[in-house]
Write a structure and sequence with these properties.
Number of domains: 1
Number of strands: 12
Number of helices: 5
Strand order of the largest sheet: 1-7-8-9-4
Strand content: 25-35%
Shape: globular
Largest sheet: 5 strands, mixed
CATH architecture: Alpha-Beta Complex
Helix content: 10-25%
Order of helices and strands: HEEEEHEHEEHEEEEHE
Protein name: RES family NAD+ phosphorylase
Pfam families: RES
InterPro entries: RES_dom
Region (Disordered): 1-26
Radius of gyration: 18 Å
Structural class: alpha+beta
CATH class: Alpha Beta
Organism: Rhodococcus aetherivorans
Length: 213
């Protein structure tokens, strides 16, 4: 018996009760370093609930998109773009971040997730309402985040991590500490090593805009 290859195989998730205690999970442990690319000048730990992201929760809960390497954050941020005007660099920061507590991480990169109906389309489909159903079900099953593969990284060695928390800016500060801390933030204009890595790894180039006279 065969299933047509011409159709999407990713289905809606099973119930949270089915996923709870059975869906594969992994770290990261507290204080594992991860990375976040975000608009310059804004908090690194922004949890989106507007439905615009692959795993967005809704209402009072949101999702913050991070990655295990700096390069992956940029590949995802500039998805499908192969020439980046240099002035765009100043508009983005890259932050090194940590979570100060242990997280229950749903491991969507594990083959043990296949039995629940998961396929690699979870990482590539443009059907965001479907992947958001998965995020909701996994969150209700007790998971704090999802480890998944980046759509625009073909090496599949390191991964992305979508973290769940109250929606909005949860970035911790000295005055108002939270579980979500920032170890450091740099503007991309000050990181030529990352521009070089983008070109070497993916052929994505940063170019100056010619002056008009």
């Amino acid at each position: 018996m065969n299933v047509s290859r011409a159709q999407q195989h990713l289905k809606p998730p099973p119930s949270p009760d089915t996923l709870r205690g059975r869906f594969p999970e992994t770290g990261p442990a507290a204080r594992t370093t991860i990375y976040r690319s975000h608009a310059a000048g804004l908090g690194a730990w922004w949890f989106s609930s507007n439905g615009g992201g692959r795993f967005d929760l809704t209402g009072s809960e949101g999702t913050c998109y991070t990655a295990e390497t700096e390069l992956i954050t940029l590949l995802e941020a500039w998805s499908g773009i192969y020439v980046i005007p240099r002035p765009e660099l100043v508009k983005r920061d890259i932050s090194t971040v940590i979570v100060r507590r242990d997280l229950r991480l749903a491991d969507a990169t594990s083959n043990r997730a296949i039995q629940f109906g998961l396929t690699s389309e979870m990482f590539t489909t443009t059907d965001d309402p479907l992947t958001q159903q998965w995020a909701k079900a996994l969150h209700e099953a007790g998971f704090d985040d999802i480890r998944y593969l980046a759509r625009h990284d073909l090496k599949h060695v390191d991964a992305c991590i979508a973290v769940f928390a109250a929606s909005g800016d949860q970035t911790g500060t000295d005055e108002e500490p939270s579980d979500f801390a920032v170890l450091g933030t740099e503007n991309l204009l000050d990181r030529p090593d990352l521009w070089e890595a983008l070109e070497e790894e993916a052929g994505i180039v940063v170019l100056d805009i010619p002056r008009s006279f």
